[in-house]
Amino acid sequence: MAYSADDLVGMGGITNIQWENRLGEISLIIDPKQQGKQHGERAVGHLLEQAFGNMGLKTVFGECYMCNEAWKFWKKIVTEHAGQETILPNRKLWKGRFYDSLYFSFDADCFVL
């Protein structure tokens, strides 16, 4: 969890860990009032440092549905941290429409902070 003064800014983590494959999923949620203030960028950097440095993971992956404007944030983050991405079609049915998703991963050997 991240706080600014006494206010909760957001929270994130590495979840769905497969220790035998050294693989984990990144998750992040930032209060909409706190978005655009670099909190998400700093949180992702910290989470990836923990995943690769302290936890010994090889790969961290994530998925963001394109009905969520956060997919643009993740696309930028993937580029900044030398990740890989692909678009998966028709992954989310929301409000009567199918949306694609941005599926992405970061590899410990290629990670750039």
UniProtKB/TrEMBL annotation:
Name of this protein: N-acetyltransferase domain-containing protein
Phylogenetic placement of the source organism: unclassified sequences, metagenomes, ecological metagenomes
One Pfam assignment: Acetyltransf_1
CDD domains: NAT_SF
Coiled coil: none
Gene Ontology molecular-function annotations: acyltransferase activity, transferring groups other than amino-acyl groups
Domain (N-acetyltransferase) ranges: 1-109
Transmembrane segments: none
